[in-house]
Amino acid sequence: MSLFEPSLPPGLIFVPNWLSDEEHSAAIEEVDSLPFENTLSRRVQQYGARYDYAQSALHDLGSAPKIPPLLAAIGNRLTAEGYFSRAPDQVIVNEYVENQGIAPHIDRLTFGEAVATVSLLETWPMDFRSPNGDETEVLLEVKSLAVMTGESRSSWTHSIAKRKSDLIGGLRKPRGRRLSLTYRTVLGE
Questions:
Q1: How many structural domains compose the chain?
Q2: Kind plus residue range of the DSSP H or E element containing 80
């Protein structure tokens, strides 16, 4: 690790270029062929079990459409590579456009011990903050995998700042469109 690379929060696993170019293109094509919900400031797709953002409540498995084939194959790969002990049964696709973001939060513990995010289309930074105020920024690169386990999963918040551009590698880059595929397991199922 160089002096300029940020340290990762404890338990965060980051794998650059986890998807191949072909998988990346196919995932975008599958996501864009399916309808988005417009109930939040950003567009989302939910599969397996629906999470009600207004009520902060998770509905039962089957309350959202079945996970589409390619997204399911990615979930199976996550399991085969040991990131999950069983195949994820809940997937949320988030679309972030230009100055959209997501407030600091910790995914509900009813989603199991690991939360995995695969990043599509653009590299955007995610901010992590520990309970004692330590902060670090992780660049969620195109085709990368970030898996939150341990402390990064249970006690560090994560967020994406709302802004029109990001400073990446010393260059100011305007934001366009980013898709994230977030994989989780529903406990008790």
A1: 1
A2: helix 69-80
pLDDT score recorded for residue 42: 85
Q: Which domain holds residue 107?
A: 12-184
In a domain, residue 110? The reply is yes
- Which residue stretches of the chain have pLDDT < 50? 1-4, 189
State residue 46 phi and psi, 5-degree precision: -125, 140
The CATH number for 40's domain is 2.60.120.590
Q: What is the pLDDT of residue 3?
A: 44
Taken in order 6, 7, 11, 13, the sign of the CA dihedral is positive
The answer as to whether 136 is a domain residue is yes
Q: Whose CA is closest to 181, among 22, 39, 73, 100?
A: 73
Number of H helices, E strands in the chain: 3, 14
